[in-house]
Amino acid sequence: MSETTDERSEFEYTPVTVAGKTAVVVGGTSGIGRGIALAFAEEGANVVATSRTDSRVAATAEEIRERGAEALEVTCDVTDRASLDELVERTVDRFGGVDVLVNSPSAIARSSVRDVTDEEFEHVLDVQLTGVHRTVQAFVTAADPESVVSIASLSSQQGMTDLAAYASAKGGIDGYTRAAAKDLGPEIRVNAIRPGFITTEQTADTYAEGSYRYERIMERASAERMGRPEDIAGAAVYLASDAAAYVTGEIVVVDGGFSTSSF
User: Fold this and answer.
1) Catalytic pick from 13, 166, 176, 214?
2) Could you give the 3-state DSSP secondary structure of residue 211?
3) 166 given a catalytic annotation
4) Residue 41 maps to a domain
5) What CATH number has the domain bearing residue 57?
6) Which of 28, 56, 81, 86 could join 33 via S-S bond, C-beta 3.0 to 4.6 A?
7) What is the mean predicted confidence (pLDDT) over 9-26?
8) pLDDT over 90, % of the chain
């Protein structure tokens, strides 16, 4: 048998699937995080979609179960290590372990550099950056997930008004992702997704069709539409799957071509 034939016979394609895995989505009860949690449920994963709000946790868990997946209802505050430890313990007790950790906590201060207060700045960093570190540290210490996926932001790359604190935190996510991939590999893969402008219940008014922001985005986005949570969820499913076994330390851009255009 020729060498070429041998090489072809050794080709093994790994499907993009998270079926049977257990995924924890922090900040998974609204917006992009909720979209990711529901996508994992659709794909047959066990899902823990958590946030600080009891009612949202319960509602999202019900949506997960409606899709035929197992869910666990537990609230969590990423600024509180004891809360994170409880999340890890309850998830491991219920499902025996954790395969995927998704970090999508929410905190924003729409204030300019001149106006943002120390308290606002520190709160955004505490949730969006230090909170991600606390979460990763808690899970890799006690649960050893195979894949960690965090939500980055275009604001760390594009100059945007009134987002000094948020852009700073998300810029930190870029660096943290690469550093964590080196520290935790090869056992744990660490990646991030940089979404474009995504329409959610929180941003519907901001990006309303016909608004100035909407028109500017349409001028630059090659896809000629706003993004949806499902667009980010697809990337998250891929990064969490075994098909992405050779992907780590990457910031995957999902922005409809916005960042590739200068006008």
Assistant:
1) 166
2) coil
3) yes
4) yes
5) 3.40.50.720
6) 28
7) 94
8) 73
